[in-house]
Write a structure and sequence with these properties.
alpha/beta; Rossmann fold; 7-stranded parallel beta sheet; two-stranded antiparallel ribbon; globular; serine-type endopeptidase activity
């Protein structure tokens, strides 16, 4: 199952190029979500100490399964004879816990932490959560501040089959410009390269990636499949880390 969609977007070829590179730099990708299971066998040693913006400490244990799933898509250990292969193997996953239910203050705090504390080592920020038609200029400003500091921000387009030019979805289609350093990702049916029935779409969408039945890590050391624009965004974040 995993092989088909990886081959559809030429990931094995990308791995071959990377593996032939004499010197590779480990990339840090921040995952703003509901925590990550750092002890998962396919993530152990890849997840580094993160930050909890709610409790102001480093407790980023998972409160839900979403963040662990996104982390696995980005950076599950390749060639370890178990589970799956993440998009990027020379990676450090930096979990940023911003609550079980996203809020604008928590989102802003997540970006503030990354800008103030981690701008020198974080290359990509993955934030797949959104708030639908509600928007926050403060969060928008923080996102743009992060991109100005050199961090690429990857966001999900959303899962309502909306035309975002008519029904905006934050942060994909609010305060956007073609050069703002934000990538908004739609989802396709794996090898079909056709948008999924629930993926949002519009001029605000920058790119699409597989987002249907994506194999990934789950809680308690298990595995599951993920779908919608979140796993599609995680795939793009991993690819961005290769560049």
């Amino acid at each position: 199952m995993q092989k088909a969609y990886l081959e559809a977007i030429s990931i094995p070829e990308a791995w071959s190029i990377l593996d032939s590179t004499a010197k590779r730099t480990t990339v840090t990708i921040a995952v703003i979500d509901d925590g990550v299971e750092a002890t998962h066998p396919d993530l152990e040693g890849t997840v580094i100490k993160g930050y909890n913006v709610i409790d102001k400490n480093d407790d980023t244990r998972p409160r839900g399964r979403h963040g662990t799933g996104m982390a696995g898509i980005v950076g599950a250990i390749r060639n370890n004879m178990i589970g799956l292969a993440g998009i990027l193997d020379s990676v450090r996953i930096l979990p940023i816990f911003d609550g079980e239910v996203p809020s604008f203050p928590a989102m802003a705090d997540a970006f503030t932490y990354l800008i103030n504390k981690r701008k020198d080592d974080v290359k990509v920020i993955l934030m797949t959560e959104g708030s639908g038609s509600s928007s926050s200029q403060f969060v928008t400003d923080k996102i743009l501040e992060a991109t100005a500091a050199g961090m690429l921000v990857v966001v999900a387009a959303g899962n309502h089959h909306f035309d975002l030019d008519i029904t905006p979805d934050f942060p994909c289609s609010f305060g956007r410009s073609p050069t703002d350093g934000v990538l908004c990702v739609a989802a396709t049916y794996g090898t079909k390269m056709q948008l999924t029935d629930d993926s949002n779409f519009a001029l605000a969408v920058d790119i699409a990636a597989p987002g249907n039945e994506i194999v990934t890590t789950d809680l308690r050391g298990k595995y599951a499949t993920a779908k919608h624009t979140s796993p599609a965004a995680a795939i793009v974040a991993g690819i961005a880390g290769m560049l």
